[in-house]
Amino acid sequence: MGTNGSTMLESADVLRQGLPPIDPSAVSSAASCALPARYEAVRSAREFTRRTLSDWDVAERFDDICLVVSELVTNALRHALPADTPHGQDPPVRLHLMRWTSRVVCAVRDPSDDSPEAGDSEAVLDDCSAESGRGLFLVGSFSDSWGWHPLAGTLSGKVVWALFRL
Predict the structure, then answer these.
(1) Torsions phi, psi for 162 (to 5 deg)
(2) Is the dihedral of CA 109, 107, 18, 101 positive or negative?
(3) Are 164 and 143 in contact (CB under 8 A)?
(4) Which residues contact 129 (CB under 8 A, 6 or more apart)?
(5) Among 156, 16, 31, 41, which Cα is nearest to 104's?
(6) Each residue's pLDDT tens digit, 97-136
(7) What is the spatial distance between Cα 19 and Cα 11, in angstroms, rounded to a whole number?
(8) Which residues contact 62 (CB under 8 A, 6 or more apart)?
(9) Residues 106, 69: contact at Cβ < 8 Å?
(10) Cα(71)–Cα(41) distance, integer angstroms
C-alpha cells in the first residue's frame, strides 16, 4: 500500500473506469460458475475456463486467459473473503466468462468492497523469490486491459475483470 493517498486514489479511479463500452446484445456466448471458499476452486476455475474456451473455439488465447483467471480467483479467495467464511455457505466467489466476436472478458465477483491493490511493479520484478504480490502485475501483463467496479444496488462486493482481444 502506498503512502501517497492521492496517487492511490488516482490509481483506483483508473481501475474503476470499468469495461470499455460493449453492446450487451452483441455477446455471442456467456458462461459462469460458482466457486467455494477453498483453494481447490482455482483448479476448478481453470478447468471450467479450458472447457468453455474450447467450446467457443478460442484456444489461441487459452494460456493467457487461464493464467489471469487463476490469478483473479486466487486474489478473491486470499484477499476478498473474511477469515471466518464458512466452507458450507453459498459459494462466495463467481467466475464469469463472456465472448464477443473479437474479445473475451473474464470477470470474478467477490463479496469484498475493498479495491484490488497492485503491488509495486519494480519490487515485484526485483524480488524473484517472492511468493506473492505478482497477481495483478501478471493480470496486467497477460490481458489487453483490466479493471474493477463495485457491485450496484443491494449487492455488496466487486467485480474484477480482464479483457482479451481475439
Answers:
(1) -140, 140
(2) negative
(3) yes
(4) none
(5) 31
(6) 999 888 999 999 998 888 887 654 454 445 444 444 578 8
(7) 16
(8) 49, 50, 53, 54
(9) yes
(10) 12
Cα dihedral 81, 82, 85, 89 sign: negative
Is-contact 131 43, C-beta < 8 A?
A: no
Give the cell for residue 166.
481475439
Cell of 128: 524473484
Residue with cell 487463476: 70
What is d(CA 87, CA 157) in angstroms, rounded to the nearest whole number? 18
The angle subtended at Cα 148 by Cα 142 and Cα 154, nearest 5°, is 150
Q: C-alpha grid cell for residue 122?
A: 519494480
What Å distances lie between residue 135 and 6, 20, 52, 163, CA to CA? 23, 22, 23, 16
What is the average pLDDT across 75-103?
79
What is the pTM assigned to this prediction?
0.76
Q: How confident is the model at residue 162 (pLDDT cuts 50, 70, 90)?
A: very high
Element (H, E) at 97: strand 93-99
Contacts of 39 (CB under 8 A, 6+ apart): 74, 77
Query: In this predicted model, what pLDDT tens digit does every residue of 105-115 receive, in sequence order?
Result: 999 999 888 88
